[in-house]
Amino acid sequence: MAITLPELPYAKDALAPVISAQTLEFHHGKHHNAYVTNANKLLAGTDLEGQDMESIIKKTAGDTSRVGIFNNTAQAFNHSFYWQCMKPGGGGAPTGPIAERINAAFGSYEAFAEQFKTAGATQFGSGWAWLVQDGSDLKIMKTPNADTPLAHGLKPLLTVDVWEHAYYLDYQNRRPDYLAAFLDKLVNWDFVNANLK
């Protein structure tokens, strides 16, 4: 099956004023759509055509002859995952099993939030900050460009996009403000809980 552009799980204006409808129009409709289109073009006629994104990512990670396939497929996956990580009226301290796991791994939600924001703010250039599951452990990691935890054998639980196209229309160069607003007002903890093994 071809890689497809998923519908956003909320209206384009539903995350405003934290993320504007204009940002989502460009980010989802142009940037994410371009990764999907390019991935399908690059996959056409290869042995990977028709495979799911996770399989393609794992099979092309680190393969310099297939870097285009990796970059576009991984970005299609990362974006599809990112949209699910947010919801209108989300954010704040987590509830459910993830709350206990975060407290155990980081000492408190507040400590986790600071480390997560720092990871996003210090990712040089474009990339992502993640909460991942490594076996039974929870960890924060950051990845440059299209890189993704799947390429490192880790299970993503939560991500925030720190490419400039994710926030520049709304926050200009104030990436830390975007990261704080993401955690305080957008995180979909139900989705994070659903990802826990």
Task: Give the helix/strand layout.
Elements lengths: L20 H23 L9 H8 L6 H18 L12 H10 L2 H14 L4 E8 L2 E8 L10 E7 L6 H4 L3 H11 L3 H7 L2
Helix pairs in contact: 1-3, 2-3, 5-7
CATH top level label of the largest domain: Alpha Beta
Quote the CATH topology of the largest domain: minor pseudopilin epsh fold
Instruction: Enumerate how many helices there are, as a single number.
Output: 8
- What number is the mean pLDDT? 96
Find the count of extended strands (DSSP E, 2+ residues): 3
Total separate domains:
2
- Low-confidence parts lasting 5 or more residues at pLDDT below 50? none
> CATH homologous superfamily name of the largest domain?
Iron/manganese superoxide dismutase, C-terminal domain
CATH architecture of the largest domain: 3-Layer(bab) Sandwich
Q: Structural class given helices, strands, pairing?
A: mainly alpha
Function: Destroys radicals which are normally produced within the cells and which are toxic to biological systems.
Enzyme class: oxidoreductase
Family: Belongs to the iron/manganese superoxide dismutase family.
Protein name: Superoxide dismutase
Describe this structure as you would to a colleague.
The chain is mainly alpha-helical and 197 residues long. It folds into 2 domains: 21-84, Helix Hairpins (Orthogonal Bundle), CATH 1.10.287; 97-195, minor pseudopilin epsh fold (3-Layer(bab) Sandwich). It is 48% helix and 12% strand. The protein contains 8 helices and 3 strands, in the order αααααβββααα. The chain has helices spanning 21-43, 53-60, 67-84, 97-106, 109-122, 168-171, 175-185, 189-195; strands spanning 127-134, 137-144, 155-161. A 3-stranded antiparallel sheet has the order 2-1-3, with helices on both faces. Helix 1 (21-43) runs antiparallel to helix 3. The protein starts with 20 loop residues before the first helix and ends with a helix. The model has no long low-confidence stretch (mean pLDDT 96).
